[in-house]
Design a protein that fits this description.
By secondary structure, this protein is of the alpha/beta class. It has two domains: 8-146, Rossmann fold, CATH 3.40.50.2300; 160-219, Winged helix-like DNA-binding domain superfamily/Winged helix DNA-binding domain (Arc Repressor Mutant, subunit A, Orthogonal Bundle), CATH 1.10.10.10. The protein contains eleven helices and five strands. The chain has helices at 17-27, 42-46, 68-77, 93-99, 112-123, 130-139, 142-153, 160-170, 175-182, 186-199, 205-214; strands at residues 8-13, 33-39, 56-60, 84-88, 105-109. The chain has a five-stranded parallel beta sheet with strand order 2-1-3-4-5, with helices on both faces. α8 (160-170) crosses α11. The longest helix has 14 residues, at 186-199.
């Protein structure tokens, strides 16, 4: 697919509402990206295949009702050759082997930044070798990958209060509203968010919200 295309249309099938919300927000930061099918599982996606409008599919590999793998097989058997990015939290050797037999299917780690990188550098551009990425991911088990990231970032485990702050940021509260909720001053919240983003190697509050979702803190009982 040529990277010179001005308007790129996506269809997404993702069962995790919170991850999907982050993924959609990440994509739509680019004014030339559009989401045309927003589905909760593979069954919803394939029921709309007659509308061939997308330039790429984003499909979670494991979903209820119909898995991403089954949806991908159906798409290819229907003769649709639109590029597909599929993803899972950990590398699955058997799935990777089966997916490698299908044309224009890109398998990667379930992280919004990774998915966006695959999209930019391998799907919309032919200047990079996707096989190199896949081999690097294949070499690292999930635990090793997490360990390496922690070493690079100087990993910090958020406190219970910091997790509460992240969850409230995700829920859309302002720093003042978070302070009122936790009975803390807005200045304290400002400072806490600034320190937390620094400790985690993040840039801003938006990155903190994405981190909250991708690490599963939004769903904790804290």
């Amino acid at each position: 697919m040529s990277h010179t295309l001005k308007n790129i249309k996506f269809s997404i099938a993702e069962s995790d509402y919170y991850f999907k919300e982050i993924m959609v927000k990440t994509l739509l930061k680019n004014p030339f990206y559009n989401i045309i099918k927003n589905c909760n599982n593979g069954q919803e996606l394939i029921s709309q295949l007659y509308l061939r409008q997308e330039n790429a599919f984003l499909i979670e590999l494991y979903m209820p009702i119909m898995s991403g793998f089954e949806a991908i097989k159906f798409i290819r058997q229907s003769g649709n050759k639109t590029p597909i990015i599929t993803y899972s939290a950990t590398f699955q050797e058997d799935m990777s082997s089966m997916l490698s037999t299908m044309e224009s299917v890109y398998y990667c780690e379930k992280k919004s930044v990774v998915i966006l990188d695959i999209l930019k550098n391998y799907v919309l551009s032919s200047s990079n070798d996707y096989a190199i990425y896949l081999e690097e991911w294949k070499k690292q088990s999930f635990s090793v990958n997490e360990y390496m990231e922690r070493q690079k970032k100087g990993w910090y485990e958020p406190s219970l209060v910091e997790i509460q702050i992240m969850k409230l940021c995700y829920e859309g509260l302002s720093n003042k509203e978070i302070g009122q909720y936790l009975n803390l001053s807005s200045r304290t919240i400002d400072n806490s968010i600034a320190k937390l983003t620094q400790k985690l190697g993040l840039r801003n509050k938006i990155d903190l919200i994405r981190f909250c979702v991708e690490q599963g803190y939004y769903n904790s009982s804290t």
